Amino acid sequence: MHRIFLALFLLATLALVPTLAQAPTVPVVRAQGDQTQAIGTADGDAQDDFESSLRLVVTGSPLLPGAPDPIRATVTLPAPAELRLRVVDFDGDTVAELYRGHRRAGELQRAWDGVTTAGRTVPPGPYRVVATTTVDGALERADTWVTMADRAVYPQAPASIIVAVDPGHGGDYDGAMAPDGTREADINLDIGLRLARMLEGAGVNVVLTRDADRNVNEPPQDRTGDRLIDGDDELAARPDAANEARADLFISIHNNTAASPRVGGPSTLYFDERPFAARNARLARIVQEEMVAGLAEAGEDGWQPHDHGALIYPYYVLRGFDPPRLRRPTQMPGVLSEGLFLSNPQELALLQQPAVRGAMAAAYYGAVSRYLARRGPHLGYALVDGPAEAVDPGRPLTLGIEVRNQGSEAVRDWRLTGELERARPRYLGRVGRGTRLADARVPRLAPGESALVELAFPLLQRPATGSCW
Ligand SMILES: [Zn+2]
User: What is the sign of the dihedral through the CA atoms of 454, 455, 461 and 462?
Assistant: First the structure.
C-alpha cells in the first residue's frame, strides 16, 4: 500500500540563525502572570452558584528573588465568614499564614514575599495559596498554584509556551526498583508533578503524560497498529500526548539503576538524528548542567554528583520516524533525564527526601527557562483542515494550517512549505531532502497573532519505486 507522509515545516526566508543568536529583547524580567482560579467548595456546588462563593485571585507569580512586587492574593467574601488564607508547600505543609479570623463581606488583600512565618525564605518550587471559609458550618475552599523561582519562563509571553512533562513508567510499569521497594515510577511522578505545578505557577501551559500511578495508554489503544496492545503502545502514548498538545519541549523524567551500588550521578539523553538536533543538544546540555548544579546544592555537604554529561541515545520517546514501532515521533526537542540511581544507597536516600526531589524539579524548571530565554521569532502551527484519511497518490490535497506567532517579535517574510518525503528504513531527521510540492506565504504577524494559511499540493504522483510514508 502506498501512503504519503507529508513533512511540514516552516521556512524563514529571513536569516534565522543571526536573529536567534542575538541577545533576546527582554524588556525587564519581572514577576508577572495573572491567574484567576476557578472557585471550589467542599461539596463542589460553587460553580452553579458563583455569586455566593468565595473568590481568590492571585497575581505576582513567579516570585523572583528581589522582585519589587510580591505575590498578592485577593479574597472576595460574599458574606461575613471565618477566613483562613495561607500558603502551603507542595507537600501540603503550611509555610505562611496570611490571615486567620472573622472577616466581613468584601475584599481582602494580602501579600506574600516568599518568607515563612518563621522568617525563612522558601526554596524555589511550587506553592499553593489556599483560602478557606466557614459560613454556617459550610466549608468553602479556593486555591491556586504560585511559583518561587530564580527565573521567569519566557516572561514576554509565558502562556504561549507548552511543556510536555513525562514522568517515566507508572501503572503496570515500575521502572527501576530499589532494594527497599521504592519504585522509580513513583519518584518520577513526584518530580514531574512538582515541575508541572512550578511551570503552571509561572503561567506556562503543561501537558502531563500522567498525573497519577497509571498507564499513559489509557484507555488501552493499539497505537502502533500491530494489533497488539503492549509496551510499545505505552511508549507511543507519550510522544502522542506531546504532539497532540503541540508542545514546545518534551521532558521525560527518569531515575536510574545499575548492577553496582557504587554507580551514581545524573545523565541527560537526547537523540541527534532529528530535524532539531542542534537545538536539542543545547537543551540536553542545559538540563544536565542545571541538574548537576541543583543536586550539588541539595545534597549533603561535600557530596558532588558524578556528571555523566549529555549523551546521545535513541530511546523510543526521543528518536525519529521508525516504522512500524514508531510512526509518530515527537515534533519538538526533547530529553530523557536520568536523575539519580535507586541502586546507590546514598542516592536513594537523597531521592527519598522531598527537598531533593523539589531541587530536581527546580533544575528542570531552570533549564526550561534558560533554554527559552533565547527564543526570538517562533511560529506554532496546527493542522485545522485536511483529509480525514491517508491520501492516495494521484489525488490533489489542500491543507488548512493555522499559524500563530508564539514568539516575542513580529514575524514577516516567512513561508510555509510542504514536502513529500520518501520512506527510509531509518529516519535520519534531515529536512529539505524531500520534494517540495507546496509553498504558501505567511502574512505578517505580530506576537500572539494567528492566521489561516492554505497549502495546496498539486496532483501527487505515484513514485517510480518504493513506497511513500
Ligand atoms: Zn526509567
Answer: negative
The sheet carrying 379-385 orders its strands as 379-385, 397-405, 450-457
Amino acid letter, 111: A
Model confidence pLDDT, tens digit, residues 448-458: 899 999 988 87
Polymer length of the chain = 469
Residues surrounding ion ligand 1 at CB below 5 Å: 168, 175, 254
Instruction: Tell whether omega for the bond before 219 is within 30 degrees of 0, i.e. cis.
Output: yes
- Which run of H or E residues covers position 6? strand 6-12
What is the DSSP pairing of strand 55-59 with strand 40-41? unpaired
Q: Residue 100 Cα, ligand 1 centroid: separation in angstroms? A: 44
From the CA of 338, how far away is ligand 1's center (Å)? 7
Phi, psi of 292 (to 5 degrees): -60, -45
The domains located in the chain, with CATH, are 6-23+377-457 (2.60.40), 34-147 (2.60.40.4070), 158-372 (3.40.630.40)
Please give the distance, rounded to the nearest whole angstrom, from the Cα atom of residue 380 to the centre of ligand 1.
Answer: 30
- Reported pTM: 0.81
